[in-house]
Amino acid sequence: MDEHKIAFIVCTNDEIYLQECIYYINRLEVPSGYEIEFFSVTESSSMCNGYQIAMKSSTAKYKIYLHQDTFLIHTKMLYEMLDIFLDDSKMGLLGVIGATQWNKDGYMLSSWDTGCIFENIPPLFTSYKRVEQKNRVYQVKAIDGLIMMTQYDISWREDIFDGWDYYDISQSLEFQKRGYQAGVVNQKEPWCYHCNHYSKVKNYYRYKDIFIKEYESLLPELHLRDEKRQLQNADYMKLHLEKEQLGELLVKNFNRKIEEGNIREVLDELRQEEKLADFECLKEYKMLQIIRDLEKKLLEKSVFVTSKKSLEEMLEDIHEILFLLKRIEFRAQTKEVEVHLLKSKYTSVAVLAVITIYTFDKTYVKDQLGYAGEGYLWKD
User: Fold this and answer.
1) The total number of structural domains that make up the chain
2) Could you give the angle at the alpha carbon of 13 between the alpha carbons of 59 and 257, nearest 5°?
3) Number of Cβ within a 10 Å radius of residue 14
4) Fewest beta carbons within 10 Å, which of 201, 278, 343, 356?
């Protein structure tokens, strides 16, 4: 095992997101005497399977497992990670979001209570309980899998977690079973921007049940025999699944209409039906509607949304605008490249729409692009 090597490991199915993830990794400051390597796994059958394959392929002592949509914005994070691991051999697993208590029924999505992160879901910045200033790390029961940093290799439970949920909660316990601790880093500012779409829960509850069955003996605090609570959870799960299924039907229907050349009908429906805004799976379609309406109002024509471009091309354009704006917001831009690309390819109105929805530090971003006061035009 090479004690001076750090491996970054990503399971990916989207080349655009992967390249942006790598962009931020390449900006990190690497401590003197250390080297980094990168593994992208493209054909894994599950998260555990992909991570296990990469773990076995790497000789690095330190491994950082992260989602393809996790962008590392704190350039000195490797220094701080190594300081924590080298100072405490019992600290086996680090994250940026975690839970200090187990949810009474094992449902972890609502259990995170420690750490902070930038993300795409309003209000765009989430800060849970802040760690005491004197501590560099806060011990937790489990960490969120958006990023998992380790200094020991422990096999991922691909034997039972053969999908994309609960792998992180399981691994948190696997470390603790072996006498190690899981912790959340005390971040003065978030280390990560999670450029997430939305969380699917179709299989989440099934893997929750698998998790409980496997680790029940280690978690006496779980109320697994509370019939009233189980009925409440069943109702909650049913509502979640029904909404997710309806969202999938809406996406399928919208895609069909757009392919038939009826994108105007789709965007008009998104404007008129306010309830559709509650569906996270439709937020990019909603972004198209907002851009089109603003361009028609302020420029008297729609430039971004046009029949000359496919839906896929328009969604890729939204991603490009978002990525470039976030580089500017996080001071990660390459000189004037991002500003030039935005101004040369898109209208000031389209870019402003994305700024309004997706950036946290709107004033700074608008200033960097040269917007004139509160107006919608930028200076030449």
Assistant:
1) 2
2) 175
3) 13
4) 278
